[in-house]
Design goal:
476 residues, alpha/beta, eight-stranded mixed sheet, four-stranded antiparallel sheet
Length: 476
């Protein structure tokens, strides 16, 4: 399920249908894997282990020329679903890309397809496995370089991909660009995804005597990274994650310098965000794709408008589904179909709600001691003041919605409890019901949009890949 139809802002509807291609600004869209907002300096983020050493100098410099959207969120807590929403402006219910075998159907009109029709040269460079071609997020991209991305998750967890990303992006800017057309460049940085293996000197930059070094490989299947993790080991884990963040920021700094050198900075729309956050025992777990709490879905969102005509900070509630209509707003073209997002330049962001969704494989014990396999269905709704999250269980192979069982619900006051630790649901049941109904109401448009599209056939996976995905918790 996802939110109801969000009307395009009026300013989009009165814009000309198309400007001459030469008048369209270049668009650069960058996503960073697993980047926590509280590790970005312009958001007040600091290192857990070395608060005296900056983590994101390149992003902080960009922020000085951009609008910093302080309360921006991903729609979910994992890569494929998040990027599908980014490229379609739709919540997961509408685009149906919700599990590791999902493929975006050809019938959806992606941001790249709209820009291609406007005369843009559309180029994507990606380094993570869930954005490889079989998942079909490359729709509308005339060039889609996914050679950096490992075919399987097992290898990708051990990859250090920033150097290859830097080389590929330099090649695009130096010899792959058509200067007669506006450019839409998308870059997805797989680092700093776990395993946290920062290259020198970043592997030692945030290590202090309070850290106990240990082998952090095979992260997803580790059983020793739970609430009992020794503080010194948790500190070391932080130091390695932060090393990857700093290394990625350094690569971004190189890219920003190249954009300036090729005269692709001042007049361009440049957007930098993350597909989701990352948990470090905030709610008892590590990694991502486990829940919809703030550390997993709150993401940085920096937007440098052409000629920096908007700068500063914007505290309004925002979602990654807003990127699509924002780009259309800036380039000056309307979108006649349904979008769940709203332009970040519009007053329509006020007094809104945004939705979250997550489907993850799970098992639960039966009374006889055996395990019942199924799906854990997370939902969430966030307003300016409150956040509601809940989980349902759906037994494996069951499609009747009446079989869904509510397992948990939590209500948080986001002002007094920004970390989402104090559950107010039991004492505010009427508010829980009202917000739950609002989720259903907001989802109506997304469900109607889904009904207009066929469901794409699953991405074919060989037996070895399926076994590995199950071992890593991506499939049940």
């Amino acid at each position: 399920m996802s939110p109801a139809r969000a009307l395009l802002p009026l300013c989009l509807l009165v814009l000309p249908a198309c400007r001459p291609a030469s008048q369209h600004p270049n668009v650069v869209l960058i996503t960073i894997e697993s980047l926590r907002t509280d590790r970005v300096g312009c958001y007040g983020g600091r290192s857990h282990t070395r608060p005296d050493i900056p983590l994101t100098p390149a992003l902080d410099a960009l922020a000085a020329e951009a609008v910093v959207y302080e309360d921006a969120h991903a729609v979910t807590s994992w890569t494929l679903t998040s990027h599908a929403s980014l490229f379609t402006g739709l919540y997961p219910t509408a685009h149906r890309v919700v599990d590791p075998r999902s493929r975006l159907d050809d019938s959806y009109r992606t941001l790249a397809e709209v820009l291609e029709d406007l005369g843009y040269q559309t180029i994507g460079v990606v380094s993570g496995p869930f954005l490889r071609r079989p998942f079909n997020l490359a729709q509308g991209f005339q060039q889609w370089d996914d050679h950096i991305a490992a075919v399987g998750l097992a290898k990708s967890h051990g990859d250090v991909t920033n150097p290859a990303m830097a080389t590929a992006l330099r090649r695009v800017l130096e010899s792959g660009r058509d200067p007669t057309r506006p450019l839409f460049l998308f870059a997805y940085f797989w680092d700093p995804h776990y395993d946290y293996l920062p290259p020198p000197p970043y592997d030692r930059l945030y290590v202090t005597p309070a850290c106990e070094p240990f082998d952090v490989r095979d992260y997803e299947r580790r059983t020793d990274l739970g609430p009992g993790l020794a503080p010194a080991r948790l500190a070391y884990l932080w130091s390695q994650y932060e090393g990857e963040v700093r290394a990625t920021d350094a690569t971004l700094g190189e890219l920003f310098a190249q954009l300036r050198a090729h005269d692709l900075w001042d007049d361009s729309l440049i957007i930098v965000t993350a597909d989701h956050g990352e948990e470090f025992l905030d709610h008892g777990g590590t990694g991502h794709k486990h829940n919809l709490y703030v550390e997993s879905v709150h993401v940085p969102l920096l937007v440098k408008y052409p000629q920096a005509r908007r700068t500063g900070r914007d505290a309004r509630l925002a979602s990654l589904v807003d990127v699509y209509p924002t780009v259309l707003d800036v380039v000056g073209t309307p979108y006649p179909g349904h979008l769940d997002g709203r332009s970040l330049t519009a007053d329509a962001l006020r007094d809104r709600a945004i939705l979250f969704e997550l489907v993850r494989a799970t098992s639960r014990p039966r009374a006889d001691g055996s395990l019942e396999r199924g799906a854990e269905l997370w939902g969430g709704l966030r307003t300016a003041a409150r956040k509601l999250v809940w989980t349902d269980f759906m037994p494996l192979g069951v499609t009747d919605e009446s079989a869904r069982e509510l397992e948990y619900a939590a209500l948080f006051d986001v002002a007094s409890d920004p970390g989402e630790h104090t559950n107010l649901a039991e004492d505010h049941l009427d508010e829980v019901r009202a917000l739950g109904q609002r989720f259903l109401d907001e989802s109506a448009g997304a469900q109607a949009e889904a009904a207009r599209h066929p469901t794409a056939a699953p991405v074919p996976l060989d037996d070895r890949t399926v076994d590995r995905l199950r071992a890593l918790g991506y499939l049940e």
